[in-house]
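Following up on my earlier thread - several people asked me to post the actual chain instead of describing it. Fair enough. Here it is, all 165 residues.
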Amino acid sequence: MPKPLIIFSTHRKNIPPSLLPYLMATGSLTAKFEKLSGQKLVVKPISEGRQTLTLAEKKQLNLPLNRPQSAWVREVYLKGWATGEAWVLARSVFPFASLAGNAKQLANLGATPIGYVMFGRNGATIVKRWIQKTQHGWQRTSLYDWQGRKLLISETFLPEFLTQI
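Reply from S.P.:
Thanks for posting it. Predicted structure:
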Protein backbone atom coordinates (compact mmCIF):
# COMPACT_ATOMS: atom_id res chain seq x y z
CA MET A 1 0.00 0.00 0.00
CA PRO A 2 1.50 3.38 -1.00
CA LYS A 3 2.13 5.95 1.72
CA PRO A 4 -0.34 8.83 1.69
CA LEU A 5 0.79 12.34 0.82
CA ILE A 6 0.74 14.39 4.03
CA ILE A 7 0.62 18.18 3.82
CA PHE A 8 1.40 20.26 6.92
CA SER A 9 0.19 23.86 7.05
CA THR A 10 2.62 24.51 9.90
CA HIS A 11 5.97 23.05 10.84
CA ARG A 12 5.67 19.55 12.26
CA LYS A 13 7.77 20.46 15.31
CA ASN A 14 4.98 22.83 16.47
CA ILE A 15 2.57 19.92 16.97
CA PRO A 16 2.34 18.61 20.56
CA PRO A 17 4.37 15.35 20.55
CA SER A 18 1.61 13.45 22.39
CA LEU A 19 -0.87 14.36 19.63
CA LEU A 20 1.32 13.39 16.69
CA PRO A 21 0.47 9.64 16.81
CA TYR A 22 -3.23 10.51 16.53
CA LEU A 23 -2.77 13.03 13.72
CA MET A 24 -0.61 10.58 11.76
CA ALA A 25 -2.57 7.37 12.46
CA THR A 26 -3.53 5.57 9.26
CA GLY A 27 -5.97 3.07 10.75
CA SER A 28 -9.17 3.53 12.68
CA LEU A 29 -9.19 6.53 15.02
CA THR A 30 -12.23 4.90 16.63
CA ALA A 31 -10.09 1.90 17.62
CA LYS A 32 -7.35 4.17 19.01
CA PHE A 33 -9.87 6.09 21.12
CA GLU A 34 -11.48 2.91 22.43
CA LYS A 35 -8.07 1.56 23.41
CA LEU A 36 -7.24 4.83 25.21
CA SER A 37 -10.55 5.03 27.12
CA GLY A 38 -11.12 1.31 27.62
CA GLN A 39 -14.72 1.62 26.43
CA LYS A 40 -16.84 2.14 23.32
CA LEU A 41 -16.54 5.49 21.59
CA VAL A 42 -19.51 7.79 22.15
CA VAL A 43 -20.73 9.59 19.02
CA LYS A 44 -22.97 12.61 19.55
CA PRO A 45 -24.53 13.64 16.21
CA ILE A 46 -24.75 17.37 15.44
CA SER A 47 -26.13 17.24 11.90
CA GLU A 48 -26.46 14.85 8.98
CA GLY A 49 -27.78 15.62 5.52
CA ARG A 50 -27.19 17.45 2.24
CA GLN A 51 -24.86 20.44 2.54
CA THR A 52 -23.04 22.73 0.16
CA LEU A 53 -19.31 22.04 0.17
CA THR A 54 -16.70 24.62 1.08
CA LEU A 55 -14.12 25.68 -1.49
CA ALA A 56 -11.44 23.75 0.43
CA GLU A 57 -13.57 20.57 0.39
CA LYS A 58 -14.16 20.88 -3.36
CA LYS A 59 -10.40 21.25 -3.90
CA GLN A 60 -9.62 18.29 -1.63
CA LEU A 61 -12.15 16.09 -3.45
CA ASN A 62 -10.95 17.37 -6.85
CA LEU A 63 -14.44 18.62 -7.78
CA PRO A 64 -15.19 21.56 -10.10
CA LEU A 65 -14.59 24.82 -8.24
CA ASN A 66 -16.66 27.15 -10.41
CA ARG A 67 -20.10 25.92 -9.34
CA PRO A 68 -21.85 24.92 -6.11
CA GLN A 69 -21.38 21.31 -5.10
CA SER A 70 -23.28 19.48 -2.43
CA ALA A 71 -22.71 16.17 -0.70
CA TRP A 72 -23.98 14.13 2.23
CA VAL A 73 -22.30 15.64 5.30
CA ARG A 74 -22.24 14.27 8.82
CA GLU A 75 -20.98 16.32 11.76
CA VAL A 76 -20.50 14.72 15.17
CA TYR A 77 -18.70 15.06 18.47
CA LEU A 78 -16.59 12.09 19.53
CA LYS A 79 -16.29 11.40 23.24
CA GLY A 80 -14.10 8.88 25.06
CA TRP A 81 -16.46 8.77 28.02
CA ALA A 82 -20.22 9.26 28.01
CA THR A 83 -20.06 11.79 30.85
CA GLY A 84 -16.96 13.64 29.65
CA GLU A 85 -16.31 16.50 27.27
CA ALA A 86 -15.95 15.91 23.53
CA TRP A 87 -12.50 14.93 22.32
CA VAL A 88 -13.03 15.54 18.60
CA LEU A 89 -15.31 17.46 16.28
CA ALA A 90 -15.60 15.37 13.10
CA ARG A 91 -17.00 16.29 9.69
CA SER A 92 -17.45 13.52 7.12
CA VAL A 93 -18.17 14.42 3.49
CA PHE A 94 -19.61 11.77 1.19
CA PRO A 95 -20.05 12.86 -2.43
CA PHE A 96 -23.37 11.50 -3.67
CA ALA A 97 -21.60 9.46 -6.37
CA SER A 98 -19.74 7.65 -3.56
CA LEU A 99 -22.94 6.56 -1.81
CA ALA A 100 -23.63 3.57 -4.04
CA GLY A 101 -23.84 -0.11 -3.15
CA ASN A 102 -22.84 -0.97 0.39
CA ALA A 103 -21.61 2.61 0.90
CA LYS A 104 -25.25 3.71 1.23
CA GLN A 105 -24.95 2.83 4.92
CA LEU A 106 -22.66 5.87 5.36
CA ALA A 107 -25.67 8.15 4.80
CA ASN A 108 -27.41 6.88 7.93
CA LEU A 109 -24.76 6.31 10.58
CA GLY A 110 -26.44 8.29 13.34
CA ALA A 111 -24.49 7.52 16.54
CA THR A 112 -22.49 4.64 15.00
CA PRO A 113 -18.73 5.35 14.77
CA ILE A 114 -17.66 5.58 11.14
CA GLY A 115 -14.60 3.50 12.01
CA TYR A 116 -16.83 0.44 12.51
CA VAL A 117 -17.88 0.68 8.86
CA MET A 118 -14.76 1.93 7.08
CA PHE A 119 -11.98 -0.03 8.74
CA GLY A 120 -13.22 -3.60 8.70
CA ARG A 121 -12.27 -6.04 5.99
CA ASN A 122 -11.32 -4.20 2.77
CA GLY A 123 -10.76 -1.08 4.85
CA ALA A 124 -10.26 2.46 3.70
CA THR A 125 -6.87 3.72 2.56
CA ILE A 126 -5.65 7.28 2.89
CA VAL A 127 -4.86 9.00 -0.39
CA LYS A 128 -3.90 12.39 1.05
CA ARG A 129 -3.94 14.10 4.45
CA TRP A 130 -3.82 17.78 5.43
CA ILE A 131 -2.79 18.77 8.96
CA GLN A 132 -3.39 22.27 10.28
CA LYS A 133 -3.99 24.28 13.41
CA THR A 134 -7.49 25.80 13.57
CA GLN A 135 -9.16 28.09 16.11
CA HIS A 136 -10.70 24.99 17.74
CA GLY A 137 -7.58 22.80 17.80
CA TRP A 138 -5.33 20.65 15.63
CA GLN A 139 -7.14 19.20 12.64
CA ARG A 140 -6.42 16.37 10.28
CA THR A 141 -8.40 16.13 7.06
CA SER A 142 -8.07 12.86 5.20
CA LEU A 143 -9.08 11.95 1.68
CA TYR A 144 -9.89 8.24 1.76
CA ASP A 145 -10.41 5.68 -0.93
CA TRP A 146 -12.94 3.18 0.36
CA GLN A 147 -13.89 0.43 -2.08
CA GLY A 148 -13.17 2.75 -5.02
CA ARG A 149 -15.09 5.68 -3.53
CA LYS A 150 -13.63 9.00 -2.39
CA LEU A 151 -14.58 10.25 1.08
CA LEU A 152 -13.31 13.25 3.04
CA ILE A 153 -13.11 13.18 6.83
CA SER A 154 -11.94 16.08 9.01
CA GLU A 155 -11.22 15.55 12.69
CA THR A 156 -10.46 18.49 14.96
CA PHE A 157 -8.84 17.44 18.23
CA LEU A 158 -10.42 19.60 20.92
CA PRO A 159 -8.51 20.90 24.00
CA GLU A 160 -10.15 18.25 26.25
CA PHE A 161 -8.45 15.48 24.28
CA LEU A 162 -4.99 16.93 24.92
CA THR A 163 -5.62 16.55 28.67
CA GLN A 164 -6.29 12.81 28.17
CA ILE A 165 -3.09 11.87 26.35
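The chain has a mean pLDDT of 91. That should answer part of your original question.
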